[in-house]
Design goal:
With 361 residues, the protein is an alpha+beta fold. The protein is 36% helix and 21% strand. The strands form four sheets. Strands 1-15-14-13-10-3 form a six-stranded mixed β-sheet. It has a five-stranded antiparallel β-sheet with strand order 4-5-8-6-7. The protein is globular, with a radius of gyration of 25 Å. The model has no long low-confidence stretch (mean pLDDT 94).
């Protein structure tokens, strides 16, 4: 869908009720959140709170930055990490997860996902009232432990899990752990049927650029053709602060729609690509048709595309998209029914001016 002379909210107002209606028609008794209640969550908040840009909001757990409680603390691993730029310690609250057995299980989960482990604190009844247990609590002391408990809003029978470093190094695992914690801990009355719901969230304010930590080179992190928020003025500032008018719609942990308000001004587009190291001649060579169209006076426009197969997957309660696709490919991009891809013969290669160079043995 493309619309002329629109802003971001206009796109939402058109497509949101359509999707709500589709889900309501095929929900088969499951609750569908009303379009008016779909929250707008910034990309950065989504990464912090949920560890992903396609969160499952049926799970109410939000992660938090607790770096200040570990800075200069007796837990040397986190204290030293926090001396480096761009590092954080994040906590995953685990209501009703306060047993050593469960904490050890989640630590093993993190190790299976490729991390060294996951620190934890859990709170239990002691001889003198509530007490904190676990290696972290002993290392950072009662005052810091109590400050963490209060920040996370936890109490007796609850736990918290901790991961530290540069967020991109642990964020994915933190997001997976958040979902496992919610799925495997006891529920309050009324939450037992949490799966029987379609929960939506608009993810907005995507950063346009990212920086390679080793080379320092800037490149596009997301859609390079979206309009920067603030236009040319924004591009004249710090590139890492530039946000785009880009948006996704997440439902139950899946991205079911993506779109943007398009960059329709050639001068802004050339500047945006210049920041990422692409000269004007290269932009014209790669995207000449688009540049020409803009010079003829394309109107401000925006749009989106919905993933019908993802929507069907959710409605059919399937775990993977392959279960609802007519001719699904394997993870190696093979179509087993068609026997594709097949080996091309020499005549086909000559038609395409392609030759095969076999790798050395």
């Amino acid at each position: 869908m493309e619309m002329s002379f629109v802003e971001q909210q206009d796109v939402f107002d058109v497509v949101g009720p359509v999707l709500e209606g589709v889900f309501a028609e095929f929900a088969d008794g499951r609750k569908v959140d009303a379009f008016a209640d779909w929250p707008l969550v910034s990309y950065r908040d989504s990464a912090l709170w949920y560890g992903t840009d396609k969160p499952d909001l049926r799970n109410p757990i939000r992660m938090q930055d607790v770096s200040e409680h570990f800075r200069g603390s007796g837990f040397a691993i986190f204290a030293k990490l926090l001396e480096q730029d761009g590092t954080q310690v994040r906590a995953i609250p685990a209501p009703k997860g306060g047993s050593r057995k469960f904490c050890d299980r989640m630590n093993s989960f993190a190790q299976k996902e490729g991390l060294p482990g996951m620190g934890y604190i859990f709170w239990r009844d002691g001889d003198e009232g509530m007490e904190a247990a676990g290696p972290l609590a002993k290392n950072i002391g009662p005052e810091r432990t109590e400050a963490i408990r209060q920040q996370l809003g936890l109490g007796v029978g609850d736990a918290a899990f901790f991961l530290g470093g540069k967020p991109k190094s642990f964020q994915r695992v933190a997001g997976l752990a958040r979902d496992v914690i919610w799925a495997e801990t006891p529920k309050d009355p009324g939450d037992e049927n949490w799966r029987a719901r379609f929960a939506f969230a608009w993810i907005v304010d995507f950063p346009i650029y990212e920086q390679d930590p080793e080379t320092g080179k800037l490149d596009f992190e997301h859609n390079p053709f979206s309009m920067p928020q603030g236009g040319m003025d924004a591009l004249n500032g710090d590139p890492l602060d530039v946000l785009g008018f880009q948006y996704d719609l997440a439902c139950n942990g899946a991205e079911i729609l993506s779109g943007a308000i398009r960059n329709h001004k050639p001068d802004i587009m050339f500047k945006a690509f210049e920041i990422a190291g692409y000269g004007a001649d290269e932009v014209r060579r790669r995207f000449g048709g688009m540049v020409s169209a803009f010079h003829y006076g394309a109107p401000p426009h925006g749009g989106c595309a919905a993933g019908i197969d993802r929507i069907v997957m959710l409605l059919a309660e399937e775990e993977t998209i392959r279960e609802v696709m007519l001719f699904p490919m394997t993870q190696r991009a093979e179509d087993l029914m068609m026997g594709a891809p097949s080996v091309p013969d020499n005549a086909q290669l000559r038609d395409l001016h392609v030759r095969i160079v076999e790798p050395e043995a």
